[in-house]
From TrEMBL:
It comes from Anaeromicrobium sediminis. Keywords: Hydrolase, Metal-binding, Metalloprotease, Protease, Zinc. One of its GO terms (cellular component) is cytoplasm. This is Isoaspartyl dipeptidase. GO terms for molecular function: beta-aspartyl-peptidase activity; hydrolase activity, acting on carbon-nitrogen (but not peptide) bonds; metal ion binding; metallopeptidase activity. It comes from the Bacteria.
Length: 391
């Protein structure tokens, strides 16, 4: 069935005014001022977007889809994510990853969950590896994973400057980046290296050294959790001005914010005021990952779970609380990750792109309707599609 979204104000993410959008199958077929369908034509579902803003489906490029954690022993391993944990946040594309645990959470488990979520209706990709170096892959070789496995688009999350990392050398990280880059070039993928930045004193030192001393370009790396404390955030400003990517994690706790973590919406405002290009900033949720709490001795004392719904929540706060233009704020979860990861069908509302759309209520910018690959997942706030094991 065709789907016609009428009378919405469209952000591609750039604003193009009031338009009608016709979705044909799983693609955006036409974007016109007015699309008229004959009343006798019954094979079209019309969605009235009057009073609504139409934006691209959101991309969350850092989600622990098969669960994460375990820093407090086996009972603290977080469960697998469910479909509506994702779609209720307006997210239509996720990139799955492993974290601290690369033993009981495996690459085959990650790929199986990615394929399950795609069967349920959203687009999925994955990184190969986890915190540890040498990394554990599917084929036995990082480059082969990226080239030969359709869903794998890069490597990560590799831990640096963190007491949970395997303490790799600069040379170890440079070699990983080189393999990932060539794998991406040969397969038409991003081939990025997703870096978990801990709160250790070395911060971005390894990445800066690799960029200075090798031919690996700065945008090959995506250092995430760059808002975890004031020191690394401030260092990230200079890094981003050199062309580097800074990724902010939207899942947080009240305690973390009180102890110096920068709220993403405020961090975006500060970066832009400092002259950082919006193209160099992304948000990810760290959804379903554990948010562990350690004392000054590095001992585990508790945890929370990351939420995908926090992703758009911080973008909305950036618009409403920080006064950032809608088009600008949206780019950190649409166009920017799509361009960085070479997801050529994602991140934009454009004829021929995938039919991933989110309708927001214009008065409060809350999520009203979510369409993934041309399928309506949420309509007027009502969940229409649930995961296989959701009630």
């Amino acid at each position: 069935m065709l789907k016609l979204i009428k009378n919405g104000e469209v952000y591609t993410p750039d604003y193009i005014g009031k338009k009608d959008i016709l979705i044909t199958g799983d693609k955006i077929g036409y974007i016109l001022d007015n699309i008229h369908m004959p009343e006798s034509f019954v094979y079209v579902e019309i969605i009235d977007a009057t009073g609504k803003i139409v934006v691209p489906g959101f991309i969350d490029a850092h989600v622990h889809i098969c669960g994460g954690g375990g820093e407090g022993s086996f009972r603290t391993r977080t469960p697998e994510i469910q479909l509506t944990d994702i779609t209720t946040g307006g997210v239509t594309t996720v990139v799955g990853c492993l974290g601290t645990d690369g033993t009981t959470r495996t690459m085959t488990n990650l790929l199986a969950k990615a394929r399950a979520l795609e069967e349920e209706g959203i687009s999925t990709y994955a990184y190969t590896g986890s915190y540890q170096v040498p990394i554990r892959t599917v084929t036995g070789n990082l480059q082969d994973d990226i080239i030969l496995i359709d869903k794998i688009i890069g490597v990560g999350e590799i831990a640096l400057s963190d007491h949970r990392s395997s303490q790799p050398t600069v040379e170890d990280i440079a070699k990983l980046a080189a393999q990932a880059r060539v794998g991406g070039i040969l397969s038409g993928k991003g081939g990025v290296v997703n870096i978990h930045m801990g709160d250790g004193h070395r911060e971005l030192q390894f990445l800066e050294e690799i960029i200075e001393k090798t031919e690996i370009p700065i945008r090959q790396f995506i250092p995430t959790h760059m808002n975890r404390n004031e020191s690394i955030f401030n260092r990230g400003i200079g890094y981003a001005k050199k062309g580097g990517i800074v990724d902010f994690t939207t899942s947080t706790t009240k305690k973390d914010l009180e102890e110096g973590e920068t709220k993403c919406s405020k961090g975006l405002k500060i970066m832009l005021d400092e002259g950082v290009s919006i193209k160099n900033i992304t948000f990810t949720s760290d959804g379903q990952g554990s948010l562990p709490n350690f004392n000054e001795k590095g001992q585990f004392i508790g945890l929370n779970i990351g939420k995908v719904t926090s992703l758009y929540g911080e973008v909305r706060d950036a618009i409403i609380d920080e006064g950032i233009d809608i088009s600008t704020a949206l780019k950190v979860i649409t166009a920017n990750p799509a361009d960085l990861l070479n997801l050529t069908q994602k991140g934009y509302i454009k004829e021929g792109k995938d039919g991933d759309l989110v309708l927001l209520n214009k008065d409060n910018l809350e999520i009203d309707t979510v369409i993934a690959m041309g399928k309506v997942m949420i309509l007027n706030g009502e969940i229409l599609v649930k995961g296989t094991f959701e009630k």
